[in-house]
What does this fold into?
Amino acid sequence: MGMFSESVDVSCTPEGHPVAVVWAGRSYSVCAEPVRWYERRQWWAEEIRAPLGSGPGLVDHEIWRVQVLPSAPGSGLAEQGEPLTLDLTRHIRSGRWRILRIHDALRPRTA
It folds into this structure.
């Protein structure tokens, strides 16, 4: 599993579920139901103080685990192959998305 933080563009349903990701100039389609949870972050290392009532986005951040396949150029449809599993986070106030983890990046490949 690779762990880092890189900005990505994410398209969502009206309910806020990710359906497509653009990362490093390449488009990906979400090919399985995404899973959402919240993780506690070390806000005290980044903020001087936490204003009263600012828990979501400051104390916790939203994480989405998505499985994606590259989109076929020009069609928007997912190509066939092995899905890539990504953990994405959305900054509550700005709406910006970042990749936190790539789960399949270090999986051994067979010849």
